[in-house]
Design goal:
The complex is a heterodimer of chains A (239) and B (89).
Chain A: H1 15-47, H2 59-88, E1 95-102, E2 105-110, E3 116-120, E4 142-145, E5 150-156, E6 161-165, E7 170-174, E8 180-184, E9 190-194, E10 209-214, H3 216-226, H4 231-238
Parallel strand pairs in A: 1-5, 4-10
Antiparallel strand pairs in A: 1-2, 2-3, 5-8, 6-7, 9-10
Helix pairs in contact in A: 1-2
Chain B: E1 4-6, E2 16-18, H1 33-50, H2 58-67, H3 70-81
Antiparallel strand pairs in B: 1-2
Classes of the chains: A alpha+beta (239), B mainly alpha (89).
């Protein structure tokens, strides 16, 4: 259901996204300031008595309206660049998740401790329950631990895709034959949704991304459970 | 931040460490394709030079297993078996 919440950004679930939300609000305030000033000027221009109609130049005001935008731009550029480089940073990850885009589903691989691989398809409308979100829920969710830096490797098997989670501030293109890296850390437990963000064919809209973020303890239980049948998992345990 | 050593909930469950391929200053970019490839080549070169039992080679294995998609590794393994792997091992 569309609510007013959809008008704004989703709540940040990672430190980067929180900063991005702050930056967005900061820029909107500057925009409001400029819009107010410009509309005030337009209104006064229309309503005044045109007393300086034949004025040819005004050095003072021209200097001011050249310098002022430059200063305003600096106030936007500085936090923007800071965030840009922060998003690029890889903070010594504890876990690597590989996301591979296919036509039309995502498959995920965990291979740090055991080889774990699964496909993640959208739940079709006929199989929906009361609790599922239409076009957003998947049959196999990605489970990830909270409060730990995670490296995400994104690639594709056929055409371009794009792996996105808005509430984490993450969007990375999936390109066949190339491994794109991005990193994030989830700050609270919950279920996060995203959708493929690069037109990839007929079912582009029907390959959502679902993350279930849980405390590290539960993540380990989940991994252990999934890999119980696998033999190389037991080898990892012994070594 | 040091790697996160986590105790699983119940006592009988073994402790294990969440660790992955570390940041490598040779590959500071978003594009990590080369990191995966280089680790794969290094692992097999290491095993060729130092012998199959040489423990430190396992570092490279961990790196390429963490970074490379399984399909790529399978493809390269087949290529090595059939002596048509494009890299120098």
């Amino acid at each position: 259901m569309t609510t007013w919440l959809n008008m704004s950004l989703q709540d940040g679930a990672s430190p980067i996204m929180e900063q991005l939300v702050f930056f967005h609000d900061h820029v909107l305030m500057i925009m409001l300031m400029i819009t107010t000033t410009v509309s005030y000027m337009m209104v006064t221009l229309i309503r005044n008595k045109q007393t300086s109609r034949f004025m040819l130049e005004g050095q003072m005001i021209e200097t001011t309206w050249t310098i002022a935008p430059a200063i305003i731009l600096v106030f936007i550029a500085m936090p923007s660049l800071r965030l840009l480089y922060l998003m690029d940073e890889v903070h010594n990850p504890t876990l690597t998740l590989k996301a591979v885009g296919h036509q039309w589903y995502w498959s995920y691989e965990y291979s740090d401790f055991t080889k774990l691989e699964f496909d993640s398809y959208m739940i079709p409308q006929e199989e929906q329950q009361e609790s599922t979100f239409r076009l957003l829920d998947t049959d196999n969710r990605i489970v990830l631990p909270i409060n730990s830096p995670i490296r995400l490797i994104v690639t594709a098997a056929d055409v371009l895709h794009s792996w996105t989670i808005p509430s984490l501030g993450v969007k990375t293109d999936a390109t066949p034959g190339r491994l794109n890296q991005t990193s994030f850390s989830i700050s609270r437990p919950g279920i996060l949704y995203g959708q493929c963000s690069e037109i990839c064919g007929a079912n582009h809209s029907f390959m959502p991304i679902t993350i279930e973020s849980v405390p590290a303890k539960y993540f380990i239980n989940w991994v252990s459970k999934l890999s119980e049948s696998s033999d190389d998992w037991k080898q990892v345990l012994v070594s | 931040m040091p790697s996160l050593a986590v105790m699983a909930g119940k006592k009988e469950e073994p402790k294990f460490e969440l660790s992955t391929a570390p940041f490598d200053p040779r590959f500071p970019n978003q594009n990590q394709t080369r990191y995966c490839w280089q680790s794969y080549v290094d692992y097999h070169r290491c095993r060729k030079v130092k012998g199959e039992k040489y423990e430190p080679c396992e570092y490279f294995r961990k790196c390429y297993e963490s970074l490379c998609p399984f399909a790529w590794v399978e493809k390269w393994d087949t290529q090595r078996e059939e002596n048509r792997f494009p890299g120098k091992i």
